[in-house]
Amino acid sequence: PKRDWSSDVCSSDLTPQLVVENIGLDISSYFSYIVHNYDNLPEYMAFLHGHENSYHQMHDRPMLEVIASANIEKYKYIPLNNFFRSYPFFNEESNVEGIPGLMLMDHWKKLGLPPLPYYYVLNCPLCAQFIVARERILNLPKEYWQYLLDIVTKSPKKEIFIWCVVFEFILHCILGENAQMPVASDWFSFDYKVKWWHELPQFCYSDKEKQELGIPIEDSSIKKRSWASQ
User: Fold this and answer.
1) Mean pLDDT, contiguous 10-residue spans, the chain (230 residues)
2) pLDDT at residue 13 in the model
3) Which of 9, 130, 133, 149 could disulfide-link 31, Cβ–Cβ 3.0 to 4.6 Å?
4) Which of 101, 97, 151, 104 is nearest to 124 (CA)?
5) From CA 38, how far away is CA 27, in angstroms rounded?
6) What is the CB-side half-sphere exposure of residue 100 using CA atoms within 13 A?
């Protein structure tokens, strides 16, 4: 049935267990759930925020089927989006007036994460939808998750937005994955392929690997020189 968007409250058979303040985008909801349920987390959890046809979940099947098909017992953390980005580890200046740049190196340091080489290229499963095992969350104390929640709810407004973007780039690292996260063909029981790899894939894959993933093969020397010149 067509949804009535004029209503402030949507009808549902589900009873909300926790209602959080609308601040900090989807990331604050994730951290709130972890903090409030830290002592009774289920064995596996799926964190979602996109609607069924959201641009970053380009699977050929419904999201619930994607979740049910995940090989989570083997991998403990699996991105639910087939949407990745390669991103160099540096402090990006702002190119939008009034919005600070993505100072990834500075934010990384504030979180106490292990240092990375300058311009190390992260493979980031973007838009932060994933399945994760309880053990990955419990590897960090509840106090640390509370610290992350405070960052995205109590920082200055402009900084909250940047923190939310930063967490989309590095949440997989906090949950125990390598910064340059590899893609596994058996994450799911169906044939999984990355549908969109946004920017700089030439740093991470050979031409053969890019061809297998469906990534356009371009002259990588141009961007390599441009990054090296900065």
Assistant:
1) 43 64 76 95 91 76 90 94 80 60 80 82 83 96 95 86 86 90 88 66 55 54 31
2) 66
3) 149
4) 104
5) 16
6) 17
Q: Please give the angle made by the CA atoms of 119, 122 and 123, to the nearest 5 degrees.
A: 150
Q: Are 122 and 87 in contact (CB under 8 A)?
A: yes
pTM for this predicted structure: 0.74
